[in-house]
Amino acid sequence: QRRCSDSLFVFFCHLERKNVRLVDGNSRCAGRVEVLHRGQWGTVCGNFWDLVDAAVVCRELDCGEPVDALTDNHFGQGSGPVWMSALCIGSESTLKNCGSSGWSINVCTHNSNAGVICSGHKPSRLAAGPHLCSGRLEILHDQTWMSVCDAVFDQQDAEVVCRELDCGAPVQVLGAAAFGKGDTEMWTQEIQCRGNESHISFCSVSSSHKHNCSSDINVVICPGRGSIRLVGSGGDCAGRLEVFHSGSWGTVCDDSWDIKDAHVVCRQLQCGVALSNQQVPAWFGPGSGPIWLDEVECEGNETSLWSCSSPGWGKHDCQHKEDVGVVCSGKE
């Protein structure tokens, strides 16, 4: 009979590891492209690098579709060998299967390393708001979510955040913790966007720490569908119009309100077209809280109520018995 105390079976398991990675992009789905060869990580030449090549990388890393293929050292120069120049047809399962002149056979330096941003990369989010398009601004850095100090953020930066999150243009940037300070670490470096970038990853960042960011958290409110709502009818496409501003829901006065204004509301809510604009007192019941808008004037072709003119937030001579209601044709 065999005794098992005299010997041990030892298993050496192969841990599958990726041969491609994205570095210095604040998440695994964005960054400088690096490949593993002969036990060493190196970069990829940016010459002729395009979205077809980037698609292979995004697919290999399970990061969705390519948003941009970068060749200008956006994520830094990197170090080590420049391992390859990739010429992909787009259907390859791994970057190493793409055409290449050979390992280390290229005319590139670290001044033209390839970079990728994939759709799976979401470097910013709005937390603790009433919907996805408003809340405390947080950005992803080294796999950690950090709250953004209001002293290092402005309207141009907010435009990029709202665009990236598919939330339209920013309605408001608040320099106070309207949605709470949260328990995340503070991001204190200054974000410097031009305002036309599609992702905040494209914005430059200053390493300056001159700002006092011990208390105020940045809050961004983008329009989206969730920054207006119709309530009191039991459905989403009819009811008393309410808008979200400064951390609270309020109503709209019916002074000067007409069918063109109602059309804009229905369009923003993706509820078709306006069938009527109810101005009968308390048609859907009087609201409560602030009356945020009055004398709203839209042309009718705006995509958001925030593009229409008005005297400004909270400027009115109304009572809640004048709260406007809207009836739309229904979900598109």
From TrEMBL:
Disulfide bonds join C88-C98, C149-C213, C193-C203, C298-C308. The keyword Disulfide bond applies. Residues 20-119, 124-223, 228-329 form the SRCR domain. Pfam families: SRCR. Its main location: secreted. InterPro entries: SRCR (IPR001190), SRCR-like_dom_sf (IPR036772). The keyword Transferase does not apply. GO terms for molecular function: serine-type endopeptidase activity. This is SRCR domain-containing protein. It comes from Cyprinus carpio.
